[in-house]
Amino acid sequence: MGSALTTVGLPVALGIIMFGLGLGLTLADFARVAKHPRAVIVALACQLLVLPAICLGLVALFQLPPLLAVGMMMLAASPGGTVANLYSHLFRGDVALNISLTAINSVIAVVSLPLITNLAIAIFDPFDDQLGLQLSKTVEVFLVVLGPAALGMLVRRLAPRFADRMDTPVRVGSFVVLVVVIAGAVLSNWDILVANVASLALITTLFCILSLAIGFFVPRWLGVGRRQAVASSFEIGIHNAVLAIVIAQTVLGSIEVSLPAGVYGVLMLLVAGGFGWLIRDRRASSDASERVAA
């Protein structure tokens, strides 16, 4: 069961998710970044430079075993997940900016994810001097990340009405497939997960909190608008754990490397919700309550 989930289930789940992402994207989403260049530049700098450095520091501080250390660095290198759009909407962020950042991050991840993962493998040496993500495997990452998304964008361009009709079913279907596959993967690897969850719960929670905080406060400190900072916070703080799991298990062939993303993927939903509640615009909430009362 575990082998089938790894080789078929997880890639299919990610493929459906990325296809659904592509259905909601157009070339205009990439061009839209010109409206908020500062927000985009700051968010990308945090995503690509600050977070990997912070994650490396956390890994050293917690003294994780090599395989788990590589898994944490792979998680840090993963782009924002589509769930970021939902959280941004719930807490009054600039969802259009989220969509643009997700599109750009997904393209950049084709280069940044293998690069950061290879550096982590070189530093921690979990595979006995055998580099994990070489050229052929980098191509696999390209196909896994961009292939389904590009297909979804093509469908959007050629048949926009069909894409609109399929948007909700694909989102629901991707969620259902994701839940089934991850539940099966957890059950089939239960002993390994239980043995490592204690050592991963704190570091993944702390990493999530730091990611969200950096994504919100650094843009605000640099003069980015509040709604754009909220969007940046969730885009940076909510990593695509499914992508990290798929790359770890199918490309690197290691369940252990996927464990940090698995633990993070569960805890992140709770942490992001709590963080969103803390940074919510209380004035907007108060105004909305007054309108309802009136």
List the helices and strands and how they pair.
Blueprint: H1 2-23, H2 27-31, H3 37-62, H4 66-77, H5 83-90, H6 95-124, H7 135-158, H8 160-188, H9 190-221, H10 226-237, H11 241-251, H12 255-279, H13 282-293
Describe this structure in words.
With 294 residues, the protein is mostly helical. Helix content is 84%, strand content 0%. It has helices at residues 2-23, 27-31, 37-62, 66-77, 83-90, 95-124, 135-158, 160-188, 190-221, 226-237, 241-251, 255-279, 282-293. Helix 1 crosses helix 11, helix 6 (95-124) packs antiparallel against helix 7 (135-158) and helix 9 (190-221) packs across helix 12 (255-279). The longest helix has 32 residues, at 190-221. It is globular and about 45 Å long. Mean pLDDT is 79; it is low at 285-294.
